[in-house]
Amino acid sequence: MESKPASVLKALRAEIIAGTIARGTRLKEDAIAEQFGVSRVPVREALRQLETEGFVVAEKFKGVTVADSSSEAVIELMQIRRGLEVLAAELAAGRRGGDSADLLRAVANDQRSDQEVEAETPRFSFHRLVATASGNSHLDTMIERLIHQTAWAFERVTQEEVASSGADHAAVANAILRGSGVQAGLLMDEHLRRDEALYRALDA
After folding, report:
1. At CA 17, angle to CA 80 and CA 76, rounded to 5?
2. Are the C-beta atoms of residues 9 and 15 closer than 8 Å to each other?
3. Domain named HTH gntR-type: which ranges (predicted)?
4. Nearest to residue 69, comparing CAs of 190, 178, 151, 162?
5. Residue 158 in 3-state DSSP?
């Protein structure tokens, strides 16, 4: 069962990413506590985690507000994420997917979208799946955080554009399952470079 801080964190993060809570909005502990029916303690813990992830900014005398991330900052985060995900794909290939091999095989065979993988395995989008398959828990945690932070970049991306990533995901999954680290890394790099280009086009 999810803890109260984790539940509040997940809900607030989702609302910020979706734009339901606008950038620059001040987040008041008492109001959030009342909204979720909890004390201020789990709210405070959730806000601290959101600050660590870059979603909110805490300033003395001003309180906590939703961060207003610039396009340049988002691109920088995407570049860092790309480097880490390339490493994750290479490590995952070295293990041929490890305990995540069956899930990767499902992606490779069916070319299912992130949404479908997410629906079947709540902890994983395809990129989280590869991070977990790397077998490096620290890398997994870092990538998860960056995935949350860069999710803002794709608020305006259509479902058709998201679905078109399925072929890329299938190619990466196949390379991992074959144990081809170099190819898995190159394919992941190409895939995420396309994501960066898509974001730049949206922001142009």
Report:
1. 20
2. no
3. 2-69
4. 151
5. coil
d(CA 117, CA 69): 29
Residues of the chain with CATH 1.20.120.530: 71-203
CATH number of 4-66: 1.10.10.10
- From first to last of the 204 residues of the chain, give the pLDDT tens digit: 668 888 999 899 888 887 889 888 999 999 999 999 999 999 999 999 898 888 888 988 789 999 876 678 888 989 999 999 999 999 999 999 999 999 999 999 875 555 555 544 433 489 999 999 999 999 999 999 898 888 776 665 545 455 567 889 999 999 999 999 999 999 999 999 988 888 787 666
Say how many residues make up the chain. Answer: 204
Residues 6+ positions from 1 with CB-CB distance below 8 Å? none
Q: Are 187 and 88 in contact (CB under 8 A)?
A: no
Question: Does the domain formed by 71-203 have CATH 3.40.50.11690?
Answer: no
- Cα 177 to chain centroid, rounded: 23
Ranges for all domains in the chain classified under CATH 1.10.10.10: 4-66
